[in-house]
Amino acid sequence: MAEFLIRKLEHFTSLSTEDKHALDQASRQRTRRIRSRDDIVHEGDLPQGVNLILDGWACRYKTLEDGRRQIIAYLLPGDLCDHHVSILREMDHSIGTVTAVTLAEIPTETMRQLTAGQARLSQALCWESLVAAAIQREWTVNIGQRTAFERLGHLLCELYVRLRAVGLTQGNTCELPLTQAEIADTIGLSVVHVNRTLQELRSVGLISLRGRELTIHRLDALQRAVQFNPNYLHLGREGRHLDSNEA
Amino acid sequence: MAEFLIRKLEHFTSLSTEDKHALDQASRQRTRRIRSRDDIVHEGDLPQGVNLILDGWACRYKTLEDGRRQIIAYLLPGDLCDHHVSILREMDHSIGTVTAVTLAEIPTETMRQLTAGQARLSQALCWESLVAAAIQREWTVNIGQRTAFERLGHLLCELYVRLRAVGLTQGNTCELPLTQAEIADTIGLSVVHVNRTLQELRSVGLISLRGRELTIHRLDALQRAVQFNPNYLHLGREGRHLDSNEA
DNA sequence: GATTGTAATTAACTTTTGTTATGACAATTT
DNA sequence: AAATTGTCATAACAAAAGTTAATTACAATC
């Protein structure tokens, strides 16, 4: 069950069989299935336990009074949400699904046991949340400084590399189940401008995007064109390929 | 020494005399003075211990190859930087000073001792870092969705409220040691536009800003005008005033 | 296979924001 | 005291991005 999380954590350190077993057990205790475009947690809720995304895409988002919405983060298979959030009195943002999602609800107590015992595992989970924070910082840079072209290309690079890190890419292709409206709310552009910018990325031959399938024709070229430096993902040596179907 | 940190943490929970003493001791072990507009930590460095800002303003920032710069966070008196960051192999961003800064370098080992003993203190420090993460998310919303006017007003509200939480405001006035260029790099606007927008905030009577001194004439009005909702700072009941010099 | 709703595309036009340049002023340095 | 530098302010113009609206493509359902 926890295969994606385990695969991700192993970019940081190698886990013992017991560690992996413990994670797997924890993720089996209580699973939940949520349909597409539905809320998992709502702003104002009392924070509860920890959710692990087993399958599907979710996102953190925040809505302003007048309806404007900002997507703050994407939660992909293997991502943990809200490790210590139960310390806070209420959620300051919502979490919703993009696709149908299967998640494991790991009780706070189970979480405590996981981290109390093994130092390795505890460190790995800490690494997980530090990387999440680093991604959030990079988004600030992305939206604050980059042009529309760079912003969009950067987002696509990030999602592709994160999916690759958990084995969810096939060659230079991956799923991208986002509408242009969702992309717009992610990088702070209008839908129309996202569309224009996607055309541009296509017309220079960097990507293909049809249906829900994204292909990055030359990742290195795209990285250079949009100044994507994967350091902030702290995945260790890049170029390590984890694709399930590589040539 | 750790007075600002203690004052901040007490918004979350009340600390025992021992807790406060331990924090104070930890912050006296090794202090360092850095002059204005200088780097404390540079991208690529090996992450070390934990820094506590005792006095002055610093910021996290990231620079792109072509010189564009994004300020990612402000570090004010009482802020801790990089609680667990030593887990990562290298810094993915830099930390620099805005004003002259005094900071305490707290060794990882001391940090471990602080959190190992008292659950209260450990929780409080965890709260500290959750709030930092929440601020980062709010910045994503701010830059991604809000107009120039709202963005700037929102930033000023946040800085004022954070300073108030550590007792660094006098009535509705606080220090604002930022140049317009720094503000521009914070909210993703050009210097010229920051200037225009400041004029606008002044002309509608919401703020005064002269020299390094900011006055927010009616905080509630400014909050409404820019949709600033202080929830994300998780300071507990607002309206609790901690000003050192209130009428 | 027709119908319906959602998403993508495109165009025309407006607004916002960036760029470049310049002057005023104050703080520092020489 | 003079010169230099950094910051703030303002104007004129250019570029980027938003808005509205109409149209097309696509996918799901009946």
TrEMBL record, chains A, B:
Question: In which domain of life is the source organism classified?
Answer: Bacteria
**Has keyword S-adenosyl-L-methionine?**
no
Q: For the HTH crp-type domain, which residue ranges apply? A: 146-220
* Parts of the chain that traverse the membrane: none
- Recite the UniProt keywords alphabetically: DNA-binding, Transcription, Transcription regulation
- Keyword check for Cell division, yes or no: no
Q: Name one GO biological process term.
A: regulation of DNA-templated transcription
In alphabetical order, the GO MF annotations are: DNA binding
Q: What is this protein called?
A: Cyclic nucleotide-binding protein
State the species of origin.
Answer: Methylobacterium tarhaniae
